[in-house]
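Tutorial handout. Part one gives the primary structure; part two gives the three-dimensional structure as tokens.
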Amino acid sequence: MASTEHLEVLKGPDWNQWRAEHPGITPDLTDISLLGLDLSGKNLQGADFSRTKLDGSRLDGANLSRAHLQGASLRGTSLQRADLSHTDLEYHTLDKVPLVGANLKGVNLKNASVREANLTACDLTGAKLEGTTFSGSVFSFGRLVAANFRGVVIDGCVFEECDLSQAVFDGVTYQKGKFDKSTLTLSFFRDAKLAGTSFRQTKAHRVTFRGANLTGADFTGADLTSSDFERVLAQAADLSDSILRKACFKEADLRRTILLGALLEETDLTQANLEKIDLRTPKLKFPNFTGARLAEAVGIGASLRGGNYTEADLSKADLTEANLEGGIFQRAHLEGATLRRANLKRARMSGVLAPGADFSGTNLFGAECQDADFSGTDFRFSNLVGAVLEGALFKGANVSHADFSEAKLGGSSFVGAKGEGTKFTGQLHLKLVLAAGSFLSSSKKKVEKVEDRKELERKARVAQLERQSAERDRSVASRSPRADDDSTPPGAPPEKK
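Part two.
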């Protein structure tokens, strides 16, 4: 039971003075009702409120640090700017309680209910939050360094301009949430469900999003330097103007992702899915696209210099006039890709698969294309001076007016290639092959013309025979039968008289 003396002093104006004069006394305020009492600014540090009813009371600015509140009731209280540091509030109900500016350092809120509470500018550093429900609460401008939200319910919460450095959000469900302008350095969001969540202008260095669902998330203007996005699902996410320097997107699904103005410097996109991505808008500096899926990507006129596209799928990609100088395309897939007038100077393309691709007018000066497959590829007017093409396959390719001066062509095959006006240094046998190819092509066209003419003549004869047959049928049908032949069966001899 509460001390009568302590209760009387508490209700008077000299409580704080009494506390200062008796620092060794622990106020006993247990098992009483303090409903609706104004205790604003009171020094209640270490006081024992066990099983006390504080519903509707005002505790604004009060010092409740290390106070004992087991079994106490705090419904409808006002705790703005209150000091609740290191207080045990496990299993308490603080729904809709105003806690603006409160000090909640090291507080124990395990399994508590703090729904729709106003926690603006609160300090929750080191708070214990396991099993807590914060649905609809506001944490804006708060300090939540190293806060652990694993297993915490935070749907509908707002974390704008918070300090969430080293915070843990692993496995949480927080769809369409808000972290705008917050500091997330070294925080964790592994396997979290964050579809539609906004991270606009966040400072998020070395954040771990591995395996998270970021579908439709908004990272506009965010600094994501060295962050880990391995295996994330980020379809239709907005990364406009974000900084992705040295970020990791291994095996990430980035289809329909917006990269307008994003900086991808030394960004790791190994085996990422970037199908139909627009490569014209981001700022790319030595990105790593090893094994990435870039089928039907659009990079017309894009600056993609020095990128690593080893074993990447660029089939049907449009890289017209793109700057790919020094790029690494070893064993990459370029089937049906368009690289007209692109700059592939000194590119490393050994083992590339590019049947049916368009390299017309492309600069391949000094490119390394050993064992490449260029079957049926268009190389008209392309520059392959000094290129290494040993073992390359140009079967059926069009190399008209292409320049192969000083190129290494040992073991290459030009069977069936077309090459009017092609330049070679030496390589008489290739000139003969191309000449033979041109001759055979010309002969083939002549044979096709003869066959076409013969087919037309045959069809004319068939039509003539059809007309003649129709005329005979009409002639037979127009003749009338004789009277004396009415009783005579067809084909029988005439009757003797």
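Part three, for discussion. Strands lie at 263-265, 283-285, 403-404, 423-424. The helical segments are 4-11, 15-21, 428-478.
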